[in-house]
Amino acid sequence: MSYTNTILERLTKLHPKIIDLSLERVIDLLNKLENPHLNIPPAIHIAGTNGKGSTLSFLKAGLEASNSVVHTYTSPHLVTFNERIVLKGKKIAESLLVKYLEKCERTNRANNITFFEITTCAAFLAFSKHEADYTLLEVGLGGKLDATNVIQNPILSIITPISIDHQQFLGNSIMEIATEKAGILKPKVPAVIGKQSVEVQEKICSIADSLSVPTRLFGRDWFSKKYKNSMIYEDHDGILELPTPKLEGIHQFENAGIAITALKILKATDNALVKSVQNVKWPARLHQLKRGPLLDQLENHSGKVELWIDGGHNQDSAKAIASFLSQPFEGSSHIIFGMIKSKDIKSFIAELSSLTDSIDCISIPNEPASLTKEQIFKETNPFHAKTYMAENSSRALERIITQSKNKHNIRVLICGSLYLCGQILQNHS
Question: Which of 43, 322, 392, 407 is the most exposed place for a label (fewest CB within 10 A)?
Fold first, then answer.
């Protein structure tokens, strides 16, 4: 175990719960650290259920194309914790990460604080010590009580599509969840709002109006969609025809539209708008693997083989995956599926079951929060007659190959959890 991981392991033990939404502990530690969050580069705060990371990535690509220097904060990480804190476009160096984590740990003095809260404080500390033009902050969970919501003066707020997720923390109704997400809105700070249901949009607009927030709403102030081999973006300034976004999935046209709207508020050039969709990078979201041991297993298969991963884990992300699987493919499609305990298997797999030839259920290796393959199988089997259990992705792939004709084209999607995708990406690219 690296020294960084040793520190991170200690930080996980500072609170009995993984998630305990509150701002009190964060504010207390930040005060002791001399409030670094008040001295970070201008912040853009992003909340929502789906598309936060993709939207942030489109926005980052556009800002960097404008020669802006950008910090980013995202979670969870896929392979290494360093991914969460990006300074000036690069993952934070190990030495700096250790320095800021240790300072937060010493200053906290073993007081009760969640892992996400104390590492968010470390991120603010890092951002305050390095100059940049913008800081892009992705909300961890919810909005109102998320550790990132200590930011009181962002230059822009963004709310991506909201759906049912994390009910145990945010509320059982979509309106309760929307209220929590809209908690990032600040008085008179402009906000870009992605596509929402009618009731969610009305709730967000009501909260925005009470705070005198100027809003730009999908469907009212701007619109984006796929058109032939292009992306069409339309707002009060007119129509733009842009390249197809580099991220797969029809939902990415809307995520890109959110970012373009934000970029236009920030007075980005037309070239930056183009580059936002061309240069974007966001792994494990309908991400096709090109090399690695799983692909090596397929070397002797003479048919066409595609191996994809996607970390989406709720019903709306399953709908996005379903749209992808619905695209024409001359061969069979298969799912390898793992999920953590807090997620709703049934609503997820119900969207996908009719679009796949088989489903292999696996436990996420070395992940305590993972459901067992038996638990996943029990919930999944009623949706698909060809549901199997496997020890891991490699074994599942073996079964798929064995039961496929040698010349048969195969498309395999490993999905259900970012933790699962992160483990795959450790050995693949």
Answer: 407
